[in-house]
Amino acid sequence: MQPDPRFPIGKFAKQASYSPTERAAHLEMLHQTPANLAAALVGLSESQLETPYREGGWTLRQVAHHIPDSHMNAYVRFKLALTEATPTIKPYDEEAWALLPDTKTVPLAVSVALLEALHLRFVALLETLTEADWQRTYNHPASGLATLEQVLALYAWHGAHHVAHITTLRRNKGW
Ligand code: NI
After folding, report:
1. For 135-162, how does the pLDDT look when each residue is reduced to its tens digit (9 = 90+)?
2. Over 70: is that where the pLDDT of 44 sits?
3. Residue 99 CB neighbours (<10 A)
4. How far is ligand 1, taken at its centre, from the CA of residue 82, in Å?
5. How many beta carbons lie within 10 A of that of residue 4, not counting itself?
6. Rounded CA separation 30/15 (Å)
7. Angle at 64 between CA 70 and CA 125, to 5 degrees
8. C-alpha 58 to ligand 1 mean position (Å)
9. Using an 8 Å Cβ cutoff, are 117 and 71 in contact?
10. pTM for the full predicted model
């Protein structure tokens, strides 16, 4: 069976709960995401960046700009859940965001720098969470309640998932 190109590291598999060791591993993945994105983009030409990672999929440029778009939303969701009782968070239309003109005009280095700065705040915040904080929840209008340890696992996976879109295409193309 051919692997599904949409899911180079597999789909996200949510657990009901996580051990402190698992959370630490996810936090480390989150910490590494900006460096991994920067490394995945090294040496790509403008035309390579305009290549879809799969047929009908986002270009490598859209994939890379999407990661800070998504993780800025995630950072805000953590802060909402840490300061309000089970807030209902605001989904966003990621396909429409990926089509906004800034994703064509802003250099990718800006999004890498944005992700680096964001994750410094994000990881620093998450390092302060207590066991009780990890069990705090938000409500997503489509997918329902999530604990913050589940959200951490999701975004640890999410960064690696999109970086793998870039690295998998590079490997397949010999770039
Ligand atoms: Ni995504």
Report:
1. 999 999 999 999 999 999 999 999 999 9
2. yes
3. 12
4. 23
5. 10
6. 18
7. 40
8. 10
9. no
10. 0.96
Neighbouring CB atoms inside 10 A of 135's CB total 13
To 10 degrees, the CA torsion angle through 31, 34, 40, 45?
180
CB proximity list for 72: less than 8 A, separation 6 or greater: 118
What is the 68 CA–ligand 1 centroid distance (Å)? 10
Per-residue model confidence as pLDDT tens digits over 51-102: 999 999 999 999 999 999 999 999 999 999 999 999 999 999 999 999 999 9
Q: How confident is the model at residue 1 (pLDDT cuts 50, 70, 90)?
A: low
Tokens matching residue 65? 């700009």
Q: 128 CA distance to ligand 1 centroid (A)? A: 26
3-class DSSP string for the chain = CCCCCCCCCCCCCCCCCCCHHHHHHHHHHHHHHHHHHHHHHCCCCHHHHCCECCCCCCEHHHHHHHHHHHHHHHHHHHHHHHHCCCCECCCCCHHHHCCCCHHHHCCHHHHHHHHHHHHHHHHHHHCCCCHHHHCCEEEECCCEEEEHHHHHHHHHHHHHHHHHHHHHHHHHHCC
144: left (phi over 0), alpha (psi -120 to 50) or beta: left
- 125 Cα–ligand 1 center, Å: 22
